[in-house]
Amino acid sequence: MESTINLKSGQTASYSTKNVSAQRELSAYGKLIQKLEFSYFGLISMTILIGSIIAGIAASVVLDNNAPIWQLCTIAAIAMANNTSGIAQAPTKWVVGTFILNAAVSTIFILANL
Fold it and tell me: How confident is the model at residue 37 (pLDDT cuts 50, 70, 90)?
């Protein structure tokens, strides 16, 4: 919906209320991303640190279990994607997304190889 405002000088200005309603209807994930943008560099350092620790634990569990090498390669590739998105200062959505993917995949492989 577009509205117009009459200014004192006889000019008119229009604005759209679509952005306002879209901001109100953010999902929980969107709200999380907005909150995390405040401390972007802290977020990057924590995702690199925690993601590397989780992937390292998953890699050691996979190696201890003599699992197929594709499991180790999958863990390493996703952990490197997480670290690369952080080091390259990708958008917050990418950093959080790759971290969640890294944590989920690493946890799955840890549980599968126990």
Answer: confident
